[in-house]
Amino acid sequence: EGFTHVIPLGPDYERVAEGFASTTRRLVRQADESGLTVRTAETIEDVESWHAMAVGTVRRRGGTPKPLSIYRRIFEEMAPAGLARYHLVLHDGAPVAGSIHLFHQGVATNWLSVSHETAWPLRPNNFLIASLLETLCAAGYLEYNFGASPPDAAGLIRYKENWGARRRPV
């Protein structure tokens, strides 16, 4: 039986952020001071850059990366309809992390967050999630879903729960 992790959202991001563990709040502050920026992927080249990070991330986790053609199709067909969005985190103008999220009926679901291991000291994933949660709250989203959590991935589960996310059976 699988599960995911979910955070209820509201119009006040600061109130949502009160549910973060103190360590997560500290890491978000560190990320804010790292000179990072986040933007939506706008071109196929952006998706290719995201995919290169995805290949590294998936292999590092012991998986088999999906082909670029899948992500290209999502960008071409789902993104224009508002159902999917790629984000890139930049440091000194270069992508160091990113994500793909799916959107439906007031819920944003994280499909895959990716990063360059060398950028981890900058905390780009913390920066990305915090930035996205703030944007989602302002846009009236109801819920953020971190995506599936394998039961044997204690570190990943702890990461999600430190954001105040609660388990939900799938």
Helix content: 40-55%
CA distance, first residue to last residue = 7 Å
Low-confidence residue ranges: none
Mean pLDDT: 96
The number of strands is 7
Structural class: alpha+beta
Order of helices and strands: EHHEHHEEEHEHE
Instruction: Tell me the fraction of residues in β-strands, as a range.
Output: 25-35%
Main sheet strand line-up: 2-3-4-5-6-1-7
Dominant shape = globular
The biggest sheet, with number of strands, parallel, antiparallel or mixed sense and barrel status, is: 7 strands, mixed
**Tally of contiguous helical segments:** 6
- Rounded to the nearest angstrom, the radius of gyration is 15 Å
Your description of this structure?
The protein has 170 residues and is an alpha+beta fold. It has a seven-stranded mixed beta sheet with strand order 2-3-4-5-6-1-7, with helices on both faces. The chain is 40% helix and 29% strand. It is globular. The model has no long low-confidence stretch (mean pLDDT 96).
How would you summarize the topology of this molecule?
Layout: E1 3-8, H1 13-17, H2 22-32, E2 36-40, H3 44-60, H4 68-78, E3 84-91, E4 94-104, E5 107-115, H5 124-138, E6 143-148, H6 154-162, E7 166-169
Parallel strand pairs: 5-6
Antiparallel strand pairs: 1-6, 1-7, 2-3, 3-4, 4-5
Helix pairs in contact: 2-5, 3-4
Features:
single chain, 170 residues, alpha+beta, 7-stranded mixed beta sheet, 7 strands, 40% helix, 29% strand
